Amino acid sequence: MAGTLHRPRVAKTEFPRYKEPPHVLKESLIHNTQSATTKECDIIDIRKGEISLNLAESIRSGIQKPHFKGHRIVPSLLLWDEQGLKLFEKVTYNPRYYLTDAEIDILRTYSAAVANLVKPGSIVLELGSGSLRKTNILLQALEAQRKDIDYYALDLDKNELSRSLRQLMLGNFKHVRCHGLLGTYDEGRDWLSQAEKSRRPTFVLSLGSTIGGFTPSEATDFLHEWSRTLQQRGDEINSQLIIGLDGNKNGAEVFDASPKGNGGEH
User: Per the database record, which ranges form the Histidine-specific methyltransferase SAM-dependent domain (predicted)?
Assistant: First the structure.
């Protein structure tokens, strides 16, 4: 999609912050809402079974030799198990972690305009879907436009995928069909390239400024691989990639939102 959507100027009181994610409240709603309990979470396991071998090699490589700016690293896959995803969701409710609220502001303002770009019959694939509270805003806009689409939430932990999808399905969608994909970005790209899916319009979402956590070379590879995957579908197939990026130039605020600042405290 060409162009940039900026955060609108709104009163902060419009979007209240919480000290903790309202898991208990949401889970009680799930158990007490008949429409939610009658729906099964459709989670597709697209893992190839090679992750443990690749992970071990990545750990050895990251520790044995310096990488970006001389740092030794461990794979981010180690962070995104069930506990890691829940911890990060807590971070998104920290007042100093401004990224989530900023994207909520943007989506609430522009969700209808973004939904206009999605053709009926599309696949909407979200990379690293997390709790889905931001995504729900866009899906509600698609539902309001009566667009029949398939939404796929791609993430690494089955329990968290199931929990977040159950919460999402409280929205009682009629036109938006929700599914989970259990796997990595690379496995999601391979899944999307399968013949029966390659003929459908596709809308790929990467929210949360995920790309901001990559090294420059990793970010380049990420954009190249996903752009190539979508371009291979042909010009006649409407395929788009939307990426959330942090445009904040206030270094102190960015630091406070980072793991080294208060935004990273759990």
Answer: 56-257
